[in-house]
Every structure is written in structure tokens, then in C-alpha cells.
Write a structure and sequence with these properties.
Blueprint lengths: L16 H21 L5 E5 L2 E5 L6 H11 L4 H8 L9
Antiparallel strand pairs: 1-2
Helix pairs in contact: 1-2, 1-3
Organism: Rhizobium beringeri
Protein name: DUF3606 domain-containing protein
Length: about 90
């Protein structure tokens, strides 16, 4: 059993790139979940690992404000990470 702050079973130290990626993924999921909770309607279209957003229905004002403040300003990589947590057009 690894001790906090010491390498785990796979010998990666805490704070490794993999752990950082996991934290970013968790943060991305939290942003997507909050956007959806506020009434966000954007859908992801994922094709050949290319992510695009479709926006046919209007967001609630709260969801739109959240998107503009917290998601839109992200760099492309991080914004795509958030977008991959949205429902997809195939879910419709």
C-alpha cells in the first residue's frame, strides 16, 4: 500500500503527468457538468477524434454566461477536454 507522497504501485510519483492529466480531466468534467446543470444545450460532435460543438437550441442565460466566463476563454486543448464531456449529437 503506497504512502501519500511516495510512488504508487506503478512507480509514478504523485504529481506525475498522468496524475496532472487526471486532475485536468476531472476539472473538465466539473465544468461540463456545471454548464449542463445550468441549462446548457450545446452538443458535441466527435468524428475521427475531431471535436466540434453544435448549438441548435438556446442556452439558459445562466448557462451562456457560464460558458462565456469559464469555458470559452480556455485554450483549445482544455476547451476540447470540456466539450468531450458534453452529450453528443448521437445521444439525441
Amino acid at each position: 500500500m503506497p504512502i501519500a507522497g511516495q510512488p504508487g504501485k506503478d512507480d509514478r510519483p504523485f504529481g506525475s503527468p498522468m496524475e496532472e492529466h487526471d486532475m485536468q480531466t476531472t476539472r473538465s468534467k466539473e465544468l461540463a457538468d456545471e454548464y449542463l446543470r445550468l441549462g446548457g444545450k450545446r452538443l458535441a460532435k466527435i468524428d475521427d477524434n475531431i471535436v466540434k460543438i453544435r448549438h441548435w437550441d438556446d442556452d439558459t442565460p445562466e448557462a451562456e454566461a457560464f460558458w462565456q466566463k469559464h469555458i470559452e476563454p480556455l485554450d483549445d486543448k482544455r476547451r476540447v477536454e470540456v466539450e468531450t464531456h458534453l452529450p453528443t449529437i448521437n445521444d439525441r
